[in-house]
């Protein structure tokens, strides 16, 4: 039985019910997070909680830091109740503005947010880590507040579908001639031995894995520069890689059907990847 959390109750997933008037369903009016769980312990909870709190505040959903902090216990219980305390798992959390008659403006004050969370088993892809992935380039057609992790993901859906149709894993998004990020990941280029990535702004998500990848790179002496990569630089980069909660550090070995570098994971990516994985598993007391 898969147990989920919905509005204060723990219940079987097949018994969870949402109103058709829920604004998450009607408008995509909500914020979500996905956390990684290793041997029953959540990785980087405080960073995820801070980002969720910021997002909810930015879109003015009345679910403050104390309420978000309470979701840690919800995650831990879901992991335990679903018997995911050994190995790896993820927990998805979503808070919407709640159920109310459909109006574009906010519902009446006092409308209760809808809170949902569910845990799932997770197995990292060793093939993705070891041999790398294929990617395509795709126009970044998303709205101008990509820094908010909203449940309205149509831009990412279209980009990921284009990648899927091309036999690739990820779509690297291009806005105004610059690489911003992946459709569902942070994106990096290695140019002249320096790891380059788009600076934090409203055009990219402040990725938790992005943060840890940059910290890991600096810790092992790899230079980092938060300066945008042009599309031309991206195509001639010695190495490309992505980072995400469920991708870790994944080398990109082909882009738009052409090899990146020599078509194999590069040495800088490997160095950052090793440091990142040590940080990921070491933070929860697991020896790789």
Keywords:
alpha+beta; 2 domains; D-amino Acid Aminotransferase, Chain A, domain 2; about 290 residues; 6-stranded antiparallel β-sheet; 16 strands; D-amino Acid Aminotransferase, Chain A, domain 1; about 30% helix
Describe the structure in brief.
The protein has helices spanning 23-27, 45-58, 65-81, 126-131, 154-165, 208-219, 231-236, 267-282; strands at 3-6, 9-12, 30-38, 41-42, 88-96, 114-121, 133-139, 170-175, 178-182, 186-191, 194-196, 224-225, 229-230, 239-244, 248-255, 258-259. The protein is of the alpha+beta class.
Commentary on this structure:
- This protein has 288 residues and is of the alpha+beta class.
- The chain contains 8 helices and 16 strands.
- The protein has 2 domains: 3-121, D-amino Acid Aminotransferase, Chain A, domain 1, CATH 3.30.470; 126-282, D-amino Acid Aminotransferase, subunit A, domain 2 (D-amino Acid Aminotransferase, Chain A, domain 2), CATH 3.20.10.10.
- It has helices at residues 23-27, 45-58, 65-81, 126-131, 154-165, 208-219, 231-236, 267-282, and strands at 3-6, 9-12, 30-38, 41-42, 88-96, 114-121, 133-139, 170-175, 178-182, 186-191, 194-196, 224-225, 229-230, 239-244, 248-255, 258-259.
- Strand 10 and strand 11 (194-196) form a beta hairpin.
- Helix 2 (45-58) packs across helix 3 and helix 6 packs across helix 8 (267-282).
- The longest helix is centred in the first third of the chain and has 17 residues, at 65-81.
- The protein starts with a strand and ends in a 6-residue tail after the last helix.
């Amino acid at each position: 039985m898969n147990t989920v959390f919905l509005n204060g109750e723990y219940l079987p997933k097949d018994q969870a019910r949402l109103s058709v008037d829920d604004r998450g369903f009607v408008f995509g009016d909500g914020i979500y997070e996905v956390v990684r769980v290793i041997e029953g312990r959540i990785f980087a909870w405080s960073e995820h909680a801070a980002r969720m709190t910021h997002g909810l505040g930015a879109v003015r959903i009345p679910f403050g830091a104390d309420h978000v902090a309470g979701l840690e216990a919800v995650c831990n219980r879901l992991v335990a109740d679903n018997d995911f305390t050994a190995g790896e798992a993820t927990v998805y959390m979503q808070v919407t503005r709640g159920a109310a008659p459909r109006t574009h403006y906010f519902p009446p004050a006092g409308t209760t947010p809808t809170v949902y969370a569910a845990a799932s088993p997770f197995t990292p892809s060793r093939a993705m880590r070891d041999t790398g992935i294929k990617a395509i380039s795709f126009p970044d057609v998303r709205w101008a507040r990509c820094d908010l992790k909203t449940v309205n993901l149509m831009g990412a859906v279209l980009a990921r579908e284009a990648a899927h149709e091309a036999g690739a894993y990820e779509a690297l998004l291009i806005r105004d001639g610059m690489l911003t990020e992946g459709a569902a990941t942070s994106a990096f280029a290695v140019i002249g031995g320096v790891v380059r990535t788009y600076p934090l702004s409203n055009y990219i998500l402040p990725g938790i894995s992005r943060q840890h990848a940059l910290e890991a790179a600096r810790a092992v002496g790899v230079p980092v520069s938060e300066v945008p990569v042009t599309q031309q630089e991206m195509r001639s980069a010695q190495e490309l890689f992505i980072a995400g909660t469920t991708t870790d550090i994944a080398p990109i070995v082909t882009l738009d059907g052409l090899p990146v570098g020599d078509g194999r994971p590069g040495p800088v990516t490997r160095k950052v990847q090793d440091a990142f994985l040590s940080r990921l598993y070491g933070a929860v007391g697991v020896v790789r």
